[in-house]
Amino acid sequence: MELAQVRLMVTDFAACYRFYADVLGLKPQSGAANGPYEKFSPAVGSAGIALQDRAMMAEVLGELGDEATGHRSLVVLRVDDLDAYCAQITSRGATLLHGPAPMTDRMRVAHLKDPEGNLVELQEWLLLRG
């Protein structure tokens, strides 16, 4: 078994697409900026984050037609230099909710939200530093 992706159900596909591509700097697979689906990948690794238009999935699973409330997910991305990455993404429009700050003696984190309110945690693993 292999984890192919984590998929987020979104209502404003275009805004979320811009966030993951233009703000976070992830690479879109096909360039489908208006949906209904797109997978994003970091520069390294095989894991991916995908966006799925919520209305389209509601045609398959009716319960998804209800308005989503509360925090439904936490996307975690590891970066090599948290301060530099946070400076890059804030210059592209991201708003940090927290950090960069230590979470444990092994990692530093920062948190932000995408346009749908999904939480994104950026991690810098201190144990990997030389």
TrEMBL record:
SUPFAM superfamilies, from UniProt?
Glyoxalase/Bleomycin resistance protein/Dihydroxybiphenyl dioxygenase
**Highest taxon of the lineage:** Bacteria
Q: Gene3D superfamilies, alphabetically? A: 2,3-Dihydroxybiphenyl 1,2-Dioxygenase, domain 1 (3.10.180.10)
Domain named VOC: residues: 2-125
GO molecular function annotation: dioxygenase activity; metal ion binding; methylmalonyl-CoA epimerase activity
Keyword list, A-Z: Dioxygenase, Metal-binding, Oxidoreductase
InterPro entries reported for this sequence: Glyas_Bleomycin-R_OHBP_Dase, Glyas_Fos-R_dOase_dom, MMCE/EMCE_epimerase, VOC_core
BP-aspect Gene Ontology terms: L-methylmalonyl-CoA metabolic process
This protein is called Extradiol dioxygenase
